[in-house]
Automatic annotation (TrEMBL):
Residues 146-240 form the TonB-dependent receptor plug domain. It is found in: Membrane. GO terms for molecular function: carbohydrate binding. It comes from Gemmatirosa kalamazoonensis. Coiled coil: none annotated. Pfam families: CarboxypepD_reg (PF13620), Plug (PF07715). This is TonB family protein. One of its GO terms (cellular component) is membrane. NCBIfam families: tonB_Cterm. SUPFAM superfamilies: Porins, Starch-binding domain-like, TolA/TonB C-terminal domain.
């Protein structure tokens, strides 16, 4: 189905070639989304109208721009497509009389994930980071601590390995086969309490980057050891700091607080191009959100908390990140890219925050499948000190 196009005259500057008697021209333009966002990674194919010859191909850059040089006069056909959007086809006269760029609007076909809003904190608030409390408690000698230096020294294969040498902690196999750290129950065997098991182990209350997750069988091995900055362990209510109790009953079986690493990109630019991703979708190796029965959903194992770039604290921006979630619910790092972005610093902030995230795998016909996810992230210069907030 075609939508009605609003096309400004193309930039068709004559570029006379000495080897050609007839003038040659440039066809240039821009591909945009419904919100006027400039779409990167859109595939633009051009051929002479009505011709069966092979099409010339270009991919839009970070600004959504494309360009074809050495174009003969006459009518050409442009076909524009991008993963997650409906393709468009239009006819362009070469040269255009009015000048200007060919603007190609694309309509979204696959539903993007619910967006996230990141608000800038005031300088005073931003300087007091939640992880600073970790250092204060460690300096005071409260509880037991695993630091980044400990992790680098031990080089564990899995995060659960970090708990094997902690006194009073046992690793219990959960229902899904995961290893779950628990504190040995110091209460009498006959005492009934939240989290106490028949084996005498006590399920702790979990925190992740200052966010309470509750007493659940958390799969810590879903977080790579390289993504962890520190871990706090408190074996009983008497040792749990007030800031980590979340209510007295929640701390009866102790607390485990995990802090993930912050600052600096943790994965480089994706090595899978938008063209390669499009081929994966076309071949049925990867699916879009509208092609699956149940789309991938982020799990609260590692919070998604992009940093607001210091140089852009007074600037609003928007990024739409794109990546593939595999059949195990993990992000395929080489597929991370961006559909659109108002500034590279916003993109890098989002890229860094994607590290270590875990999802429920998409389901299609009863099977877990790979799904391409497109995730809008909005940056707002707000001095209210608000944290990351999900929006519908």
């Amino acid at each position: 189905m075609r939508t009605r196009l609003t096309i400004l005259a193309g930039t068709l500057a004559p570029a006379l070639l000495s080897s050609q008697p007839a003038p040659r021209y440039v066809v240039a333009g821009n591909v945009r989304g419904a919100d006027d966002a400039r779409l990167a990674g859109a595939i633009v194919e051009m051929r002479a109208a009505g011709s069966a010859s092979a099409a010339r191909q270009a991919t839009t850059d970070a600004d959504g721009a494309f360009r074809f040089g050495d174009v003969a006069p006459g009518q050409v056909e442009l076909r524009v497509r991008r993963v997650g959007f409906r393709p468009e086809t239009l006819q362009v006269e070469v040269p255009q009389v009015d000048g200007g760029a060919v603007i190609v609007p694309l309509e979204r076909a696959a539903q993007a994930m619910a967006g996230v809003v990141v608000r800038a904190q005031s300088r005073a608030t931003a300087s007091i980071t939640p992880f600073a409390a970790f250092e204060r408690r460690r300096a005071a000698g409260l509880g037991r601590f695993v630091t980044r230096a400990d992790i680098d020294k031990r080089r564990p294969q899995r995060t659960s390995d970090l708990f094997r040498s902690v006194p009073g902690v046992v690793l219990v196999q959960g229902e899904a086969g995961t290893l779950v750290p628990q504190f040995r129950n110091s209460m009498s065997a006959g005492t009934a309490s939240r989290g106490a098991s028949s084996q005498g182990a006590c399920t702790p209350f979990y925190w992740m980057d200052g966010t309470p997750l509750g007493a659940l069988a958390l799969d810590l091995d879903a977080i790579p050891p390289g993504a962890i900055e520190g871990i706090e362990l408190y074996s009983g209510i008497a040792t749990v700091p007030a800031a980590l109790r979340g209510g007295v009953s929640n701390a009866v079986c102790g607390v485990i607080a995990v802090w993930t690493r912050r600052g600096g990109p943790r994965t480089g630019p994706g090595s899978v191009s938008s063209l390669q991703l499009a081929k994966l979708v076309e071949s049925g190796d990867v699916f879009t959100a509208d092609q699956v029965d149940d789309a991938a959903v982020m799990l609260p194992v590692v919070p998604f908390t992009p940093e607001y770039p210091d140089a852009l604290r007074k600037t609003a921006g928007k990024v739409v990140a794109e990546f593939v979630v595999d059949a195990n619910g993990d992000i395929e790092g080489e597929t991370i890219g961006f559909v659109s972005s108002t500034a590279p610093a916003f993109s890098e902030s989002v890229r860094a925050a994607l590290f270590g995230l875990h999802f429920t795998a998409a389901q299609r016909k009863g099977h877990a499948v790979r799904q391409v996810v497109q995730w809008p992230v909005k940056f707002e210069p707000d001095d209210k000190g608000a944290a990351v907030v999900k929006t519908p």
